[in-house]
Design brief:
The protein is an alpha/beta fold and 196 residues long. Helix content is 35%, strand content 25%. α1 runs antiparallel to α7.
Length: 196
């Protein structure tokens, strides 16, 4: 969803550059990066090291969502202790990212009934749409559904869980023209899509 227009424009500007876009969890991505099998990674922004650095692309707020008409959506001011009554699904992430979510929930005293982690976003959306499931998802993944009122974001506290995404590159060489253009196109897409 996010990358499609970026990649279309990039290919028009650089038709001779070979692209391979794959989806991996961040641990797998960094292993491929360290082994020289990929040039760039679009991922949650890592800590800067002697080997890698990153350019920020966007900061994304997570939403606790249910389908319109869900019992939690129709209650005005659903209580946070009611969240655990319903199964909650997360996007499958690395163990480190899962721990960040769990730590945030613990600090905010939010109790969710985590029923599983699923890689396929479409499957999570189907579960929300067809059942009473709850999902904790990045805003960019459900922006259209929020806008169309197909899902409702539940308030889960004053503090919002956020992740900053960045384009990770090797410090051993500067970005080339094509890579710099990809970064600019990603940032432009964030602005156009009204993401942070």
């Amino acid at each position: 969803v996010f990358l499609r227009p970026v990649l279309l424009k990039f290919h028009k500007d650089f038709p001779n550059v070979s692209l391979q876009v794959r989806s991996f969890d961040s641990d797998q991505s960094f292993n491929l990066f360290e082994n020289g099998q990929v040039d760039l990674i679009l991922t949650e922004r890592p800590a800067v090291t002697d080997v890698v650095d990153s350019f920020p692309v966007m900061t994304d707020s997570f939403h606790l969502v249910v389908k319109a008409g869900h019992p939690l959506a129709v209650k005005s001011g659903a209580l946070r202790d009611e969240f655990s009554k319903y199964p909650c699904f997360l996007i499958k992430n690395s163990a480190q990212q899962r721990k960040q979510v769990e730590d945030f929930m613990l600090r905010q005293k939010i109790n969710l009934n985590i029923a599983g982690e699923i890689e396929d976003l479409g499957t999570i959306k189907d579960l929300i749409e067809r059942t009473l499931a709850v999902a904790f998802l990045p805003g960019w993944t459900i922006a259209k559904e929020l806008e169309n009122h197909a899902v409702v974001a539940l308030p889960y506290g004053r503090k919002v869980f956020e992740r900053t995404w960045g384009l990770v590159y090797s410090r051993s060489r500067p970005l080339n023209l094509a890579e710099s253009t990809l970064l600019k196109l990603c940032r432009k897409r964030v602005t156009e899509a009204a993401l942070k």
